[in-house]
Amino acid sequence: EHEQEDLMEESSFYTSFSGMKFPVTLPKITVADKKAIMGAAEAPGGWPAAKGLPLFWQESKSCSFYKSLFQTLKPTLVIDAEIGSGQAAQAALQLGISYVGIAKHTSHMNFVANAVDKSALRHIVETGHMLFNKQLSESINEIFKSELEESGTEEPITLEGEAPWEEVAAQDK
Question: Region Disordered: which residues (predicted)?
């Protein structure tokens, strides 16, 4: 079954996914790392740079989108020429699909590897997931307790003078 059923069309003969929702937040990277990867690290006025910047402002596909796509196409290997913030990599991990991705820079690779590692930790301790291992789970819960307590999703950032995300999203409905 697909995590976001509203993304799917009536059959696999369709070439589109309707109802795809833009992610509420984008993964953030430090200003210094973004500058090393992209050559620039610009942000809108009023942006709290201390909270990091999205690596790609235009990124629009979430992990759940890739999960639905992979469940539809049933690949055994994903080769990603642009790993973005690692959403496809995390979806492949969750589904047990082999994944190879190309990063722009060592900092980019480290950023995505850290995100995928955190995702893997969450799945190793999740009873019923294919990565679950009872003994390893106990050790991970002990060593990485604070990382596992993080929800993995961030609160949306609101700029000065901008309506909160909930109000903007409500207008789209």
Answer: 149-173
Q: What is the C-alpha to C-alpha distance for residues 42 and 100, in angstroms, rounded to an integer?
A: 29
Other CB atoms within a 10 A radius of the CB of residue 173 amount to: 4
Domain boundaries, the chain: 5-156
Locus of tokens 């059959």: 11
pTM over 0.85: no
d(C-alpha 58, C-alpha 87), whole Å: 14
Strands (E), the chain: 28-29, 53-54, 77-80, 98-101
> 3-class DSSP state for residue 132?
coil
pLDDT digits (tens, 9 = 90+) for 74-111: 999 999 999 999 999 999 999 999 999 999 999 999 99
